[in-house]
Design a protein that fits this description.
By secondary structure, this protein is of the alpha/beta class. The protein has helices at residues 7-18, 44-54, 70-75, 77-94, 125-138, 163-173, 190-201, 221-231, 277-286, and strands spanning 2-3, 25-27, 36-38, 61-63, 98-103, 143-148, 151-152, 177-180, 184-185, 188-189, 209-213, 219-220, 239-242, 255-256.
Length: 296
């Protein structure tokens, strides 16, 4: 069962289905094709409905639901807490093993390279909400908290536009954009994220505890945006340096940068290695003709 059908959830659902695994997808949106269960888990009623679905006995539940907008959560922490932690409580009570997609915002952000053994000290509301959800699920002992760094890749025609999509759209239009110099990331491509989650979710031996999923390179948002411009054939100097406090990224920590965990013990991932940003953005550009028009 995959709860949440945003950028990551839809990719994981498709990866599992392509491999022949039966998947129940849970989302607030109604899928007219009948491929997913419409349930609003932001409400108490929706969480009860989720509990009923879990009672049917799925092998595992993969939690990639929202709300995930860091700025919105910073202004609506209680509401976000009710959803994320309410869902975690329902899943913990069900006894179904869970994989929670968590965040790199769990740390104070005063340096990069955070590891799973480092102390959790969130600097924003999003990190606090996810930290509480992690504790609820990990106390049961049969769950995995997978902390994921910034994910980039093509999403569907609905939902928020990713940072990489915004960069490529501006680059291909030949227009200026501002990008912070003081927010550092370890971006990871969507195909890598879907591959790791699908492998962990179907592993013969349960993958439990805490692991970090991150790209191989630490970049500032400015460096990432300028790389996107370069690969798109635009002038990187069109990306104007700014500070995160001048943008809607003000609530993010200075460093949302993780040290990736080893996944070689998970079936199918023995030879896996994440794409570096140059290869990942190049892959996005190669896919443009097979994707909806990119939007800023």
């Amino acid at each position: 069962m995959v709860v949440g059908q945003g950028l990551i959830g839809a990719a994981v659902r498709d990866r599992l289905a392509a491999a022949g695994h039966p998947v129940v997808a849970v989302s607030r949106r109604t899928d007219v094709g009948g491929r997913q269960q419409s349930t609003d888990i932001s409400t108490a009623r929706g969480r009860r409905e989720l509990g009923d679905l879990l009672a049917t006995g799925p092998r595992q539940v993969i939690l990639v639901h929202g709300p995930g907008d860091v700025t919105w959560i910073n202004n609506n922490e209680q509401q976000a807490h009710e959803t994320h932690c309410g869902v975690a409580e329902v899943v913990a009570e069900s006894g179904v093993p869970a994989l929670l997609v968590s965040t790199d915002n769990l740390f104070p952000g005063d340096r990069g390279g955070y590891r799973p053994t480092d102390q959790v000290r969130p600097s924003n509301a999003y990190g606090r909400v996810k930290a509480d959800a992690e504790r609820i699920l990990l106390d049961g002992g049969a769950s995995l908290a997978l902390r994921v760094s910034l994910v980039y890749g093509w999403g569907g025609s609905t939902g928020r536009v990713s940072y990489a999509q915004r960069c490529l759209a501006a680059a291909l239009a030949g227009i200026r954009m501002s990008a912070p110099t003081d927010q550092h990331l370890t971006p990871i491509h969507l195909t890598d994220v879907a591959s790791v989650i699908a492998a962990c979710g179907t592993a013969s031996k349960p993958v439990v505890g805490v692991r970090h999923l991150a790209g191989p390179d630490e970049l500032s948002r400015l460096e990432f945006a300028r790389l996107a411009y370069e690969l798109a054939g635009a002038d990187p100097d069109l990306v104007v340096p700014c500070l995160r406090a001048e943008t809607d990224l003000a609530s993010r920590p200075r460093y949302s940068a993780l040290a990736g965990s080893d996944f070689s013990d998970v079936g199918g991932l023995a030879d896996w290695a994440p794409l570096d940003p140059r290869d990942g953005l190049s892959a996005m550009l190669q896919e443009i003709g097979r994707r909806p028009a990119i939007r800023q």
